[in-house]
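ZP: hey, is the coenzyme A complex queued? I don't see it on the tracker
AM: it wasn't, my bad. submitting now with these inputs:
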Amino acid sequence: MTDFAYNFPFVPASQSLVANSGAANLPRSFIREAHPGDVAQLTELLASSFYHRTGWLYWAYPVIKLGIQEDLRQRIKGEKSNYLCLTALTSTSEEAKIPVSPRMAGTVEVSQRQAWPWQGMSPHYAYVSNLAVAPGFRRRGIAGRLLATCETLVLGWQLRDLYLHVMADNLPARRLYQKAGFHLCRSEETAATWLGLQPRRLLLHKPLT
Ligand SMILES: CC(C)(COP(=O)(O)OP(=O)(O)OC[C@H]1O[C@@H](n2cnc3c(N)ncnc32)[C@H](O)[C@@H]1OP(=O)(O)O)[C@@H](O)C(=O)NCCC(=O)NCCS
């Protein structure tokens, strides 16, 4: 299991709902399942992490955000047993003493999938996507904690293989995944790669024990 120093325990949905009602205390920093009320903050976090508001993207940004928001809303509202969106929340020690919502520091999604025999993957596996940590919270081990939580939940699904994609030019993410124990499964190229418009996509794999 990935070992990261920063402590973000996973709080089950039932416990975080009780805490929201003021009936229980939560740790200062924790990871919980996202709920529909998180969609606006999650959208902001994902859009700002994956798209830069420069050039033509400056004009397309609101449309991109809308697309992210609707997709997220559908996925989270769906409450499927084979899908989870997690969010890492944190507050300073002062903020934790007063009843304000903790700030959203990071997010990740994990789902159960099936592979075709010719894909060269395990027939039943878990897939991680949309991992993002807000700029002000980076390099504190939050992405590592989110991945470690995914691993625990995936083992609970009785799955032993975790896959994800990363763009070849995303060096911070590649270092993170390497540190978390992922290794290269295959490098994927498309017409856009051949034309030099897009970097290669790397499929990474981590067998869980
Ligand atoms: C990639 C990302 C999720 C990392 O989040 P994070 O919380 O800062 O990562 P962690 O603090 O858990 O980092 C764990 C390890 O990953 C590596 N790492 C993370 N960010 C790095 C960076 N900018 N440069 C080099 N290594 C980095 C380091 O080895 C780090 O360990 P260390 O801090 O002890 O050196 C974050 O930078 C991000 O949201 N980026 C934009 C969205 C994105 O690219 N997501 C991944 C899509 S595949």
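AM: back. Helices lie at 13-20, 39-50, 56-78, 93-97, 142-156, 171-179, 191-194.
ZP: great, adding it to the tracker
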